[in-house]
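WARN retry 2 of 3 for item q-0093 after timeout on previous attempt; input resubmitted unchanged.
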Amino acid sequence: MIHFVGFKNDRYWNAIRVWGQPDFVHRRWDHRAISDIEDADTVIFADGNEHQRLARYSYNDSEFF
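OK item q-0093 returned
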């Protein structure tokens, strides 16, 4: 699975051109995003990496799909 984290604006479409359509889109790096990721998944960050500070509150990304 491919996960996009934190993409906005044109950067989202640029990432699709490079990586293809994501299976999951996470608005921010939070506990919910982490729980959706399996060991074999690919995670693409708009900014930073998996070591960045987690968002204080989790966001239900699935409400918009």
